[in-house]
Amino acid sequence: MQKIQNQSNTRSQTFDMVVSAMLIALVFVATVFLNIKLPITANGGLVHLGTAMLFIASILFGPKKGAIAGAVGMGLFDLISGWTLWAPFTLVARGLQGYVVGKIAWSKGRNGGSVTLNLIAAILSVPVMLAGYYICEGILFHNWIVPVASIPGNIVQNVVGIVVAIPVCAVLKGSKSNVGVSI
After folding, report:
1. Which end of the chain is more exposed for a tag (fewer CB within 10 A), N or C?
2. Which residues are CB-contacts of 40 (< 8 A; sequence separation ≥ 6)?
3. Whole-prediction pTM
């Protein structure tokens, strides 16, 4: 009996690791290949679909996987794309953002099933991300006024992420019973 339970736990842990790795990869790929440099930001901000994937991961799989996917996926992007200095801050800002979205979307046993709550979760996560990067820029630039210039671009990035993620999650959550897959 103990051996069967250990095998079941090992399979579950392996499955969780594989899902987390796939979510990290999806966030990373969506950030790398689907991005547009914003002319409105002083510090070279990007709009990318990694934010949408962070929202999707958090809504579909909960706060832990959403936090890991957002933090590691976008942190890896920073490391390979010349934004290396930002990577530690991205780990924190995006990890917190993913956790907030997942925690709210999965509250009270909803498991990301409420479109309204998912939208609220994504919107409430935006100030967390903004604060994280504002503090980052304040530290890096030794100035608390310069980071204000990045806020509009970060808001645009989050709005694009919300506009993409909420309908995608609604479709995936609505169709999961039709395809027999448990998300």
Report:
1. N
2. 152, 153, 156
3. 0.90
DSSP state of 6: H
Comparing CA positions, the residue from 24, 32, 132 lying closest to residue 77 is 32
Q: Is residue 167 classed exposed, middle or buried when 0-12, 13-18 and 19+ CB atoms within 10 A define those classes?
A: exposed
**Count of CB atoms within 10 A of residue 101's CB?**
35
In the numeric block, which tokens belong to residue 155? 């808001």
- Specify whether the CB–CB gap between 89 and 133 falls below 8 A: yes
SS3 118: helix
DSSP state for residue 179 in the 8-state scheme = H
What is the distance of C-alpha 102 from the center of its chain?
A: 9
Which candidate, 47, 125, 176, 128, places its Cα nearest to that of 117?
A: 125
Mapping DSSP to helix (H, G, I), strand (E, B) and coil, where does residue 83 land? coil
The whole-chain average pLDDT of the chain stands at 90
pLDDT tens-digit readout, 62-81: 999 999 999 999 999 999 99
| Beta-carbon count within 10 A of 137 CB | 22
Each residue of 70-128: pLDDT tens digit? Answer: 999 999 999 999 889 999 999 999 999 999 999 999 999 999 999 999 999 999 999 99
Indicate the DSSP class of residue 1.
-
Residues 6 or more apart in contact with residue 183 via CB below 8 angstroms? 60, 61, 172, 173, 176
